Amino acid sequence: MRLVASRMCPFIDSRSLEMRSGREVLFRQIDGSFILYLSDSDRLHGAEERIVRLDARSALLWANEPPEDRGSFWQ
Predict the structure, then answer these.
(1) Rounded-to-integer distance, Cα 25 and Cα 3, Å
(2) Who's near 38: CB < 8 A, 6+ residues apart?
(3) What single-letter DSSP state applies at residue 16?
(4) Which residues pair with 52 in a beta bridge?
(5) Residues 30-46: tens digit of each pLDDT
(6) What is the domain count for the chain?
(7) What is d(CA 47, CA 28) in angstroms, rounded to the nearest whole number?
(8) What does residue 70 show for φ and ψ, rounded to 5 degrees?
(9) Is the pTM of this model over 0.85?
(10) Is 9 helix (H, G, I), strand (E, B) or coil?
(11) In which band, very low, low, confident or very high, does the pLDDT at 65 lie, cut at 50, 70 and 90?
C-alpha cells in the first residue's frame, strides 16, 4: 500500500452540529484500488475512524475537490 495524499479538513459533526477537524489519507493498494482513511480529532469522545474503498474515478474526484467541498466523506 502506498500513501497518495493526506490532508486535514474541517467538517460539521452530523450528531452534535459542532465544527470539527478531521484527517483524510488516501492510499493506493497493489491491485490499483484506493482506500480513504478518515479520522477525526475528537479526544473527548474518542476518535472516530472510518475506511472507505474508492474506485479510481472517486479517488481522482477526492484529490481534486475544491477547498469548500472538502470533508464530503464525513457526512
Answers:
(1) 7
(2) 22, 23, 24, 48, 49, 50, 51, 52, 73, 74
(3) T
(4) 36
(5) 999 999 998 876 655 66
(6) 1
(7) 24
(8) -65, 145
(9) no
(10) strand
(11) confident
Residue 75, number of CB atoms within 10 A of its CB: 7
> Per DSSP, what are the bridge partners of residue 8?
23
Secondary structure of residue 59 in the 3-state scheme:
helix
Record the cell numbers describing residue 38, joined without a space: 478518515
Q: What is the span of the domain harbouring residue 43?
A: 2-74
Cβ within 8 Å of residue 73, ≥6 positions away:
24, 36, 38, 50, 52, 62
Residue owning grid cell 493498494 = 29
What is the DSSP-derived secondary structure letter of residue 58?
A: H
Please tell me the distance from the alpha carbon of residue 75 to that of residue 61, in angstroms, as a whole number. 16
User: Cell 479538513 appears where?
Assistant: 9
